[in-house]
Amino acid sequence: MTAVEEKPARLVGGPGLVLVWFYGVMVVGAVSRSAYQIATEFDRAPLAYTLSAVAGVVYGFITYSLVRGGETARRAAQVCCAAELAGVLIVGTWTLIEPSAFPDATVWSDYGMGYVFIPVLLPLTALYWLRKSRTVTR
Amino acid sequence: MLDVLMLVTGVAALLLAAWCGWAAYRDQPTKDWHFIGMAVVSVLALVQLVVGIVQLARGEKPEQGTTIFVAYLLGAFACVPAAGFMSLAERTRWGSVTVAAGAVVLAVLEVRLYDIWGG
Fold first, then answer.
1. Residue A92: inside a domain, yes or no?
2. What value of ipTM does the predicted structure carry?
């Protein structure tokens, strides 16, 4: 890894741009969906809609961090991607074991099957990308 | 009318995706011709938005709700231009990949729109 010192790591260059695009799409998807569902039919599946909203917030933060760039943002994004991955796996497993807790789907139901598994693929790709674009500071 | 528009827009989006995917495969950024392609797809999405709203104004009801329908119409319209602007800043193959991804997302939105409208 070549050390480019005193230059904030640009996280949106190259493959990072595609990543930002997909995160942006997920933000719009998760936030608008949960906002609509919470506003109109919250009582039907409160847990599911709340989880969707949380997912939206996490996606929003990761998108912001990626666009902002720099080492701190990179670390923050890394933590959030790990949290996101954990969220997808936990909620995904939860929806399979205990479907009755979820009368309606969340963004993360069945490991994100309703979103072509993008929710589970995205954090993996992002973690890989963030690891690769780590700047060596000494 | 709207069904046909959804189909045409979806197919056009897939063609755009393939075209930009090809550019990315050949390690090329998006060029003027690609932007013309994006403009064509965006115009289709805009026509779809207008026609959709006109249909609503005439009193037709989408099967899964008006709010969701309008939200998807707006999303479908914004999709390709957003990816296009991002590719303007990234003059590498990855700009092309982003536009291709944007077009694929639009195609998926068209399928959802079709379901929501209840075609």
1. yes
2. 0.92
